[in-house]
Amino acid sequence: MFKQERLGQNEQPFTLMKFRTMIDNAEKTTGPKWASEDDSRITKVGKILRKARLDELPQFFNVLKGEMSFVGPRPIRKHFADMLAKEIPYYRLRFTVKPGLTGWAQVKGDYAGSKEGQKEKLEYDLYYIQNQSILFDLFIILKTVQTVLFRRGQ
């Protein structure tokens, strides 16, 4: 099990749980770094877990604890939130709702390990926040199932 502090609604920190997919102390020499698809820090078992999205399953406990929702912007680490908020206007608006297991950005986009990718991801997150509804959530959940089954998206 892997635990890491992330920012939730109103930037409140919480402990996110995942199955470990990277080597121990993966950022010891590099510092905080976004994972990429061909990241050498990801273990062989980790690649399988990530591909099937099984590494995220422990986050159901975060949902049960009220720290996360099923749908919403994905939770992010403070280091990256602070960095992106300096570079991307309105970035902190994504913290007005609970983070989610899945989100509009996850079913619409691909790996967002660049500033441009993060801007695009934010646009999807803000669209979701402005258009939030039960029907939209159900649509995103269905798209997530489709994404997982056909192994697309992020």
Give structural notes.
- This protein has 154 residues and is an alpha+beta fold.
- The chain has one domain (2-150).
- Helix content is 40%, strand content 12%.
- The protein has six helices and four strands.
- Strands 1-2 form a two-stranded antiparallel sheet. Strands 3-4 form a two-stranded parallel ribbon.
- The relative contact order is 0.15.
- The model has no long low-confidence stretch (mean pLDDT 86).
Short summary of the structure?
The chain is of the alpha+beta class.
The low-pLDDT segments are none
Side-by-side strand order of the widest sheet: 1-2
Number of domain units:
1
- Rg of Cα set: 15 Å
Secondary structure: helix percent: 40-55%
Terminal-residue CA separation: 21 Å
Shape: globular
Percentage of β-strand residues: 5-15%
In DSSP terms (H or I, runs of 4 or more residues), the helix count works out at 6
Oligomer: single chain
Mean pLDDT: 86
Structural class: alpha+beta
H-E order: EEHHEHEHHH
Please count the beta strands (DSSP E, at least 2 residues each): 4
Largest sheet, if any? Answer: 2 strands, antiparallel
